[in-house]
Amino acid sequence: MSELEPLDPDYVARVLSSPPFVTVSGVCNLRDLGQHPTEPGKAGRRTRPGFAYRSAELGSITPEGQAQIRDLGISTIFDLRSDTEILKYNSPTPVIPSAQIVHIPVFQKQDYSPERMAQRFQLYAQGNVEAFLQLYSEILDAGGPTFGTILRHVRDKPQSSFLFHCTAGKDRTGVMAALLLLLAGADDQFIAEDYALTRIGREPARAIVMERLEKEPIFAGNREAALNMLSSRPETMLAFLKLLEERYGGVEAYVKKYCELNDDDIGTIRRNLTTLPS
Asked: Which domain of life does this protein belong to (predicted)?
């Protein structure tokens, strides 16, 4: 599945109308992290449906979409974007009466200097696994407090469904989703497949995203580089999971050091993320 060519609209519509994708008007790439098999070798245990959701930005959500958020029972929305990013793309998180918006940026204002953005865009433009690993390592290094906030929600509010998002719902959101799924006991291959679904989930916003990227000097006139930024290949996530294990000691070691959680917290989070079939 190449990022360089648009996907067949009928295929996209068919996939987006089925789980794990969830329809919320005006929001792309929204899906439920439930029903992932966990604990290989132990039949039956899966991640809880209707509890943890991931998506792209919510700036274009419609009134119908707001009602759909309410109907899904999502009571907390975690926005991982920086203030600089929100202003840059003129896409503030809207007021959603049924949900509390919690702004917890992964990167701070200093991470959006012209120099840092140029470096980050250069890596995105390469679009290879090594470039994304450098980017995702930066997300892990910076994101401990952000990810810890979401994990404490899982620990403390198991009956409170939540959604987390960045801009595209791919990189920062993808790292957070991987941490949650790893803690739940999901297999690496399932995590990689979930990550790859963003290729389809973002397709309805393809033209909007390309228009934004073409305003960046590094992507102007370089369509292939811009599309590389949008790639979400499963091999990238598999390489990231290996990096997490080798450089950070695995998910448990990471959340202990960077999110300041302990073994009891991790046990509670794992229980709250999973369910046994009835």
From this structure: Eukaryota
Give the rounded distance of the alpha carbon of 34 from its chain centre.
Answer: 14
Dist CA 230 CA 107 (whole Å): 19
In DSSP notation, 225-246 reads HHHHHT---HHHHHHHHHHHHH
**Is 56 strand, coil or helix?**
coil
Residues 6+ apart with CB under 8 A from 99: 69, 70, 74, 75, 76, 77, 163
Per residue in 152-189, pLDDT tens? 999 999 999 999 999 989 999 999 999 999 999 999 99
Chain-centre distance for alpha carbon 173: 2
Q: Which CATH fold topology does 9-275 show?
A: Protein-Tyrosine Phosphatase; Chain A (3.90.190)
* Cα atoms in the 13 Å half-sphere on the side-chain side of 190: 20
Q: What is the per-residue pLDDT across 24-41, written as a single tens digit (0 to 9) for each?
A: 999 999 999 998 888 765
Rg of the chain over Cα atoms, rounded to whole angstroms, equals 18
Question: Three-state SS across 123-186?
Answer: HHHHCCHHHHHHHHHHHHHHCHHHHHHHHHHHHHCCCCEEEEECCCCCCHHHHHHHHHHHHHCE
HSE of 202, CA atoms in CB hemisphere, 13 A: 26
